[in-house]
Design goal:
This is Cytochrome B. It contains nine helices and two strands, in the order βααααααααβα. By secondary structure, it is mostly helical. The protein has one domain: Transmembrane di-heme cytochromes, Chain C (Fumarate Reductase Cytochrome B subunit, Up-down Bundle), CATH 1.20.950. Helix 1 packs antiparallel against helix 3.
Length: 245
């Protein structure tokens, strides 16, 4: 225990992003599951609109939080930036091979930032979150006419003589049938991506939790508590310390 040393790693922005993102993802998954099963649960049209409205507002928080995280990859601290997240760079594959070899040999390397495999996982997760945010914003406009494209969609599909600002979801008598069908064709790839992305994100979240627990048990350190305190407590010299000193 005498060899333990604390390192400041995750700044406040990273920690806030992580926990806000977790709460939003859990909320979006919970509401999304109810929306997907609304018919079987006997949810009325008004209830469906309410659920989608709640889903969209959680989505706004989720998207805003993600946007700030992406900005922070350019202006944040050394562990928050792209160079500490993206896989690749000089010697990266050697680092991956060495990390896996040491892991198999029972002497796992400790890292201040993400380990080489963790960088792949974080990059994929950020990409997945970004895709869900973009497709979700499109669906917010095509489904319940919410920003950023809701007014454009309303102007597109409103029946002649109907004020687009008065359009409400599921009121097909207010929509131009031809324009509505065209809008639904425009919407289809976005909802398909969002739908399957939902299940991928759910699976990824479970794998992420499992990976964090296994990594903490095998490599030591304090991955979970570090996301509260910002400090990693390690028993060895971090394998990536020499690269960012």
């Amino acid at each position: 225990m005498d060899n333990l040393k604390a390192y400041s790693v995750w700044d406040a922005n990273i920690r806030w992003f992580h926990w806000i993102n977790l709460v939003c993802v859990l909320g979006l998954i919970a509401v999304g599951v109810v929306i997907l099963n609304a018919k079987g649960l006997g949810v009325a049209t008004e209830g469906k609109i309410l659920l989608k409205t709640v889903h969209v507002w959680i989505g706004y928080v989720f998207a805003t939080n993600l946007l700030w995280r992406l900005i922070w990859t350019f202006i944040g601290g050394q562990y928050a930036r792209w160079r500490s997240i993206l896989p690749g760079g000089q010697g990266y594959m050697n680092e991956v091979q060495g990390y896996i070899a040491d892991l198999k040999a029972g002497r796992p390397r400790q890292y201040l930032g993400h380990n080489p495999l963790g960088r792949i996982a974080v990059t994929l997760l950020l990409c997945l979150l970004f895709v869900q945010a973009i497709t979700g914003l499109v669906l917010a406009g095509t489904d319940i006419f919410y920003p950023p494209i809701g007014s454009w969609i309303a102007n597109w599909i409103a029946n002649p003589g109907v004020d687009p600002a008065t359009l409400v979801p599921y009121a097909k008598e207010m929509y131009d049938p031809v324009a509505y069908d065209a809008m639904r064709s425009f919407r289809k790839p976005f909802i398909t991506i969002h739908y399957y992305g939902f299940y991928i994100l759910l699976g990824f979240a479970l794998v992420h939790i499992l990976a964090v627990v296994i990594t903490e048990l095998r490599e030591g350190g304090n991955l979970i508590s570090a996301m509260f305190t910002g400090k990693k407590i390690l028993s060895e010299t971090p394998a990536d310390k020499r690269k960012i000193d």
